[in-house]
Amino acid sequence: MRLNLILSTILQEKERIDRMLAKYQEELGTLPKGTISEKKAGKSTYFYLKYREGKRVISKYIPQKDVEAVREQVEKRRHIETMIRSLREERAIAEKALEGQL
What we know:
Blueprint: H1 2-28, E1 35-41, E2 44-53, E3 56-62, H2 67-98
Protein name: DUF6788 domain-containing protein
Domain DUF6788: 12-72
Pfam families: DUF6788
């Protein structure tokens, strides 16, 4: 009886993790990847979003007025990527616990 309750709880947790992973993966698609770099030319500073596409490194200019918003989005993406790694580890633990039990 107690074992069934524990397995049920683990299964519910795995389903919750799967839902969260799907939500985070979807949100990643809306956020910019890469890092922000700055280049100085004379007295002006220009900002670029740099990221990889295959073997190529892409640099996209970011207008001065958008730099802070893009910086926040890049940070949010990093946070979500960290959350995804953590959730995948938790899911692997849940799957191992459920292995052979269902």
